[in-house]
Specification:
about 375 residues, alpha+beta
Length: about 375
Amino acid sequence: MTMAEWACRRMGLGPTTHAESAVPQGAAPGWAKTSSLPDLFGTHPATSELWLVEAKGSRRLGLRPRIKGAKQLDIGALVPVTHQKVLCGTSLERRLFMMIDVEGLPKTGNSGGGSGGGSGGDSGDSTGEEALEQDDEALLELARSRMLTYLALTSLPRDGLRITAVGRPEEGSPARADLIRLLESDRATTELRRHVPPDAGDEAVRQQNGLDMLTGRLPGTDLMLGMSRRLYGACRALAYEERRVVARVRDERPKYLEELPREVQPADGTVARLPERQLSDRAYEERIAEVQEYLREVREEQRDDQLRSVRDGFTMGDRGSWMHLIDLAPRLALPREEGFLEAATADTYLAVEEEALDLDAEAE
């Protein structure tokens, strides 16, 4: 699904959402109760059209899984509004590659692709930025789609957090048309890092009009993730609002927990085990589905609060510093010098160890 989202974002799609965790605008009520849904959905900022995305992957992807994926996209009356279907297949042998099947040509409003398309590429980039600045719904969906990255960063040891300097492309430059930039060949990032001392902090990066991404390496992996201050602020606000949703559900529907065979933490601090009353798999799934459905209802009731809170967090993060957000001023890191290949958008960052990619391996 990560590869599928990356590919769709290259086609101009905004942030995506797991289909089982939310209901897209315009979907029929039966969406939440359907077991076989596409993996992801999102709204294209240039057309406001819903995209449904199914991701299939294996070591050697054949035709049968792709046929199954096409059937999952054919959900008929569940989405009566106009929508785009995209099937992404990822295969590992001999090298990582993708196959993308689109039902018809997507109306992205970007006829030029990444370069050479005149105003088409620029309009696609500016539409996304304008959406974040002006559209609270688009901002909320972006924050929701990046919550796993936010939670990963908050769970890392504080002494493992770093600041990575990422250049901000100039207006009118070809790089502004690229939703994802490879930083090894990014001139703006190279120039920024030349002017920022190795022992500098996030303030020095901002003084050079750069992006100061908070980054951290995921333990046990070859990956490093990161995000901008403004997106971190938005995700932090959304996390707070989600805790409010869960707290309300617990208060209003405690019966949902009565028959679940697990330990609970009472208010007095002691650990008590609920009566051993085993549920069948079907009854357990039905109970979980009830909880999730009520969570969606409460979340929808509190949506206006979430929109305001996420916008406030986004604005505060953009205007503040990392000290304001995490009460810490992480030191500057240069992942390229540590053997990482880097990529970034305006608000997200990803790096992978070059040695882990085996780029020089030749096919037999």
